[in-house]
Amino acid sequence: MDDKTFRNAMGKFATGVTVISTFVDGEEHGMTANAFMSVSLNPKLVLISIGEKARMLDKINEAGTFAVNILSEEQKEYSMYFAGQIKEQRNIEFGTLNGMPVIKDALANIVCKVHSKHIAGDHTLFIGEVTELVLRDGAPLTFFEGKYGKITSPVEQ
């Protein structure tokens, strides 16, 4: 199979959208990612996947900490900015949680210290131990087949 077919198949999995953030050398850094999942309840662990060409890879390696910000449907612009889809410079006003920069009003801000990391192909998988989190109500920003979306109604049980 070629790369495009593989990418298209992976795009069939609908995800939420996050911004991964960290703090290095007195500056906040962020990148959009949808490769995020919970790993363990005891201890509380999450996983993010960062590409080898992403500037964020060195930042997380240096900081040893990161935050996962789960975006709401109103925060599409943050995703576009940190994905490099919006080119003009913006002054992003981060909040802070346990000294980490976080996206204000995200559905969840999850602060982690790096528990372990694993190189897998052209990505590094960071397992983060959750040290703090904040939750808010709202609807998530979603991503499916390369496009942003919304959840229109809750699924009935």
UniProtKB/TrEMBL annotation:
It comes from the Bacteria. GO terms for biological process: pyrimidine nucleobase catabolic process. Gene3D superfamilies: Electron Transport, Fmn-binding Protein, Chain A (2.30.110.10). Pfam families: Flavin_Reduct (PF01613). SMART domains: Flavin_Reduct (SM00903). Residues 10-150 form the Flavin reductase like domain. The keyword Oxidoreductase applies. SUPFAM superfamilies: FMN-binding split barrel. One of its GO terms (molecular function) is FMN binding. This is Flavin reductase. Keywords: Oxidoreductase.
